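An example makes the point: we print one protein in full, the chain in one-letter code, the fold tokenised, without further comment:
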Amino acid sequence: MNTTTDTVKQVLLRSGASWVLWFLGALLLVSVAIIVERWLFYRARDCDLKVLARRLADHLAGGGVLAAIDELGKSRSVAAAIAAAGLELADRGPAAADKAMQSAAALERRSLERWLAYLGTLGNNAPFIGLFGTVIGVIAAFEALGHGAGAASATQAATQLVMASIAEALVATAVGILVALPAVVAFNYFQRRLASLLTGTEVLSNLVLAYLSQAPGPTV
């Protein structure tokens, strides 16, 4: 057991804690890239639902399903894509259109949720990665203290070295928290944006179903 412990200790001492900081730095860069990409993506897939719903209602009121599809095709929003999927099956009735919109909503949710798991995982575990680096630093500090035990002057010097090493080791924990904070904030923000976008799709979906239910056979 002692041999195993010593082996693990030597591996940790040789590796040091600096690689943990580099690893956290890499994770931070990746998370920043994901945050920027997701923000731009959600921004592009949003729209003014009031304006789009009014234009869609005008087309559907006149029975112009193809015109409504063309109008929705001008928008990159999630709501427009889902409503267009339903209108493409308008000739098969409201039930078919509803199923088509449910399928399209599932596909849109998949693209909206992309990379969010990474941000959530990083936010929950980055402090533990930093803590691991701190533990390695503390082990190294106490190892130095053990080798420096002896004369009073040597012990004092070793104690000062240990305090400096522990202070440096705590940097890893601080960096871990620093990496976790933006990931947690971004994850919560994007979850709200995702829920808002998917909730907004109900506006156009219900509008499409309302017109299809009233019309026995929409014209094109």
